[in-house]
Amino acid sequence: AQSVTQPDIHITVSEGASLELRCNYSYGATPYLFWYVQSPGQGLQLLLKYFSGDTLVQGIKGFEAEFKRSQSSFNLRKPSVHWSDAAEYFCAVGAGDDKVIFGPGTSLSVIP
Amino acid sequence: NAGVTQTPKFRILKIGQSMTLQCTQDMNHNYMYWYRQDPGMGLKLIYYSVGAGITDKGEVPNGYNVSRSTTEDFPLRLELAAPSQTSVYFCASSTTLAGKGETQYFGPGTRLLVL
Questions:
Q1: Is the N-terminal amide bond of B8 cis, ω within 30° of 0?
Q2: What gap in Å lies between CA B65 and CA B45, rounded to an integer?
Q3: What local confidence, expressed as pLDDT, does residue A75 receive?
Q4: How many CA atoms are closer than 13 Å to the CA of B60, on its beta-carbon side?
């Protein structure tokens, strides 16, 4: 069965610093991969997704993610974090059917 | 274009009470989903629907029921509320299969407390 792990429960970075959030998945074939962001008190919003082609994917708000098949990873990056990026980030995998499996989330705090 | 709307925003229930969480989307999406979010657990799928009149169980369906009489509405019913159902509930929709790369659009959530 497919699964998603996000090893970091909580990360704190200073404003202007770079960010990398880790995501590992378990799935036999090429997965459909997503990163969603949840701001406090809000629903989830798609940041970016990957399902084929270029393994480096650009998203909204200056985020990017890289699919590495050999490592079963889909890490999210941003070169310079803004205070407004403080939120919960969820990695998710689709297995080609109706459903998407979400990881447990990584909470990001930003120090001004 | 309001997207996905959910009511109520917050509710307190007593054990054994029942309630319906409302979800409406105005994007003419065929697929709709109900998730619950518990701290440190991510989102768990409760039920989903691939179109009006068609629903199916997700990962954690026990204690819940759904119906889909129209494309726009997908209510979630709790018949006998239990403390284990204290959670934040999210409704989402998509045009086609989310598991094949389609974006899901989420509502703002309903926070439910069962005492």
A1: yes
A2: 13
A3: 98
A4: 16
The strand pairing partners of A64, in sequence order, are A58, A77
Q: What tokens appear for B44 in the block?
A: 């768990």
- Reported as a single tens digit per residue, the pLDDT across A70-99 is 999 999 999 999 999 999 999 999 977 778
Q: Could you report the per-residue pLDDT of B12-28, keeping only the tens digit for each? A: 999 999 999 999 999 99
Please name which of A9, A26, A76 lies closest in space to residue A47, comparing C-alpha atoms: A76
- With tokens 């598991």, the residue in question is B99
CA angle (B9, B105, A27) in 5-degree steps: 120
Nearest alpha-carbon partner for B23 in B64, B67, B74, B85: B74
Judged by CB atoms closer than 8 Å, whether chains meet at B45 and A99 is answered as: yes
B21 vs A107: CA distance, rounded Å: 27
Please judge whether A44 and B90 are an interchain contact, meaning their C-beta atoms are less than 8 angstroms apart: yes
B-chain residues near A102 (CB < 8 A)? 35, 42-44
Taking a C-beta distance cutoff of 8 angstroms, is the pair A31, A25 a contact? Answer: yes
Q: Name the strand (E) or helix (H) holding B46.
A: strand B42-51
Which residue numbers in chain B have pLDDT < 70?
A: 1
CA distance B60 to A91: 20
